[in-house]
Amino acid sequence: MTAPPPGPGGKAYIFLNGDFEPPPDWPARPGPADLVAGADGGGRIARSLGWPVHLLAGDFDSLDEASRTALAAEGAEVFRRPAAKDETDFELALALVRARGFLEIDVLGALGGRWDMTFANLQLPAHPDFGALRVRFRHGPWNFFTLRGPAAIRIDGRAGDLLSLLPQGGDVSGLSLAGCLYPLYRETLSRSRGLSNELAESAAALDFGAGVLMVMHRAS
How far apart are CA 60 and CA 187, in angstroms? Predict the structure, then answer.
């Protein structure tokens, strides 16, 4: 049996049912204080890696009964919801992880398949309900995350890494960016002007005052 960690202290991993491409620094196992959640068929992906699944949420239209039963027998706490619901399976899993007190969350399998689901997944963490969380989508060398201003972060990598900044739903104002090939200082960012920048150092510093910004970082 795999019991959920007693409380926060590590990070949470949420597996969705999209394409899974492990990042270059992907751990062989989660840490002892980490929490692993499967959103519907994402539970099968985590299990195939030999990872424990602590929470399993969804309507289970993409997870067969045998897999769900096996995950439950191995210790997963199952939260089943009807297919006719307002939330996506990812939103259910994210709310459960938040309720357990975890703030740092890596999301796997969020891309691919249905494009409407992909965009919904990427935009969900920008909702004010999840504003306190640090949600990072991981897919191979790519890291995606969405920030709501005011925000200030450090982006670790190395010189030559691709960095694109995409405003969501309007302009992003008061944006400064240091440590990149094209630095910015208190700029207003709109449309696609933030595409195809590069890290010039081992880290970039980003801050802005207002708006919603999607950050897309590809390790070189």
Answer: 45
Identify which of 78, 20, 69 has the alpha carbon closest to the alpha carbon of residue 45: 20
Give tens-digit pLDDT for 13-46.
999 999 999 999 888 899 999 999 999 899 999 9
Which of these three, 140, 172, 199, is where a domain ends?
A: 140
Residue 71's domain comprises 12-140
Q: How far apart are the first and last CA of the chain?
A: 40
Is the same domain home to 17 and 122? yes
* Same domain flag for 117 and 162: no
Can you read off the two tokens belonging to residue 99? 């309720």
